[in-house]
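User: Sequence in, structure out. Go.
Assistant: Echoing your sequence, followed by the C-alpha cells.
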Amino acid sequence: MKKAYRNKRKLTEALHKLHEHLAGRFGLPHSVMPGGGGGDALAEMAGLDDLMSAAAVARYLGLSTKTLANWRSSGVADLRYVQVGSRIFYKTLDVHAFVARGSKRSTSEGAK
C-alpha cells in the first residue's frame, strides 16, 4: 500500500511539473493547473478533453490513414485536426460533426 502511495505521489509531482512547463511555454494562467481550480480545466480550456488518434478515426470512418493524411494535406475534407509534435489527433466532437455534415435524406441532395 505504501509503495502504491509513493508511486501516485511521484506521478502527481511529475504531472505538476509538466503543467508548470506547459504554463510557462504557452503562457497559460496557473489557475488552470491542477490544484488551482480543477485538473480538467486545462483540457477543457483547450478543447482537448476527448481526442482520437488518426488510426482510430480511420477505423471509425472506414478509411485508410493515408486517406486522412491526403485530406489534411489537400484540405479536401472539412475535418479539423490537432497536431502534437508529429502525432495527429482529432477531437471526437469534430469527427461526429463531420459525419453529421455528410448526412443526406436522398441521393438527389448532392455532395457539398
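User: And one key feature?
Assistant: The first strand starts at residue 51 and ends at 53.
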